[in-house]
Amino acid sequence: MTTRMLLRSAAVALAALTLGAPSLEGQVSTRIKDLTVLEGDVPVRLVGYGLVVGLDGTGDRAVGTSQGGGATVRSVANLLRNLGVDVPENVIRTRNAAAVLVTAEVSSYLRRGNRFEVSVASLGDATSLRGGQLWVTPLVGELQGQPIATAQGSIMISQGNLDGARTVETSGRLPQGGVAVADLASLGLANVGRLMLNRPDLTTAQRIAETISGSLGEGTARVEDPGAVAVDIPADQDPASVLAGLGELEVIPDAIAQVIIDARDGTVAAGGPLLVGAGVVSHGYLTLTVGAEGTEPPAQGAVRMEPGVRVQDVAEALHAVGATPESIAAVFESLHQVGALRARVVVR
């Protein structure tokens, strides 16, 4: 092997180490409270079946018959019956009403009287919920369970995007439409013994444990698994004060080597300053060459770049030559498969 070949091999090895080596440079510290949740603070999902009324002829098209009506007709008849008005189902027209599924996600520390946002979505063939009012709807946390909250109010629907995209009007939200009617059970702060990571990661969990131990004392925090850090709160200290203080401590979470590509519009998002090593990808008319030598002028649809180029620069170059979103996704997936891009590629 010649001296030149040895030097080139050493350079390639050094580049590979540089591309794969983790670094805290450029990473931002984050509060522990933004990386974790208290044990027991698992979000509670609520669901209910309700009626939206007051629509301008855009509701469900079900019509009552002598044999009975559809779900919406029966719901309207039951609603009126509960109010003391008995109306035969075969005379009910429901173009101004729509059956909807009502959903919400709330904290397990929700207390009676707290308000929260709910979402509604049409269950039938209504064409729009705009302008409708959600009739009072019980919300439960489990099937056949007791109501935990109720939802009621005017439905809000977005006005659509400026680019002319069609607005979906069969779903909407009520920003403060939910009201808790009971306290949700929780472990209580005195029983909290773990911090659960929002995004399980062993390195981040270890950094959190080390930071907490540095504040409370050696050995007061330990990693149980990538998703949980156990904390021993001193018996002579107030759990609320301790947990509030720990939440304000800052750590640098481990950077996730990930590239996310939107196959519809070609948007590329990289988790950190990811670099691309040597490799060649040919996809249709498009050829991306990273690191290969050559003096001939590039052909149409050819992109040539130096090793160690940023993912963002590769994306810009592909956009510049008119690559389609599908082609961009295929190129990055191929770079990952051949080892030129040491990151997970997610196409959505």
Automatic annotation (TrEMBL):
> Chief subcellular site?
other
Record protein name field? Flagellar P-ring protein
One Pfam match, given by its short name, reads: FlgI
Underlying gene: flgI
Keyword Transferase among UniProt keywords: no
> By its UniProt entry, which HAMAP family does this protein fall under?
FlgI
Q: Where is the signal peptide?
A: 1-15
Describe the function of this protein. Answer: Assembles around the rod to form the L-ring and probably protects the motor/basal body from shearing forces during rotation.
Subunit note? The basal body constitutes a major portion of the flagellar organelle and consists of four rings (L,P,S, and M) mounted on a central rod.
Q: Does the keyword Plastid apply?
A: no
Identify its protein family.
Belongs to the FlgI family.
Keywords in alphabetical order, please. Bacterial flagellum, Cell projection, Cilium, Flagellum, Signal
Organism field: Gaopeijia maritima
Which InterPro entries does this one have?
A: Flag_FlgI
Q: Where located?
A: Bacterial flagellum basal body
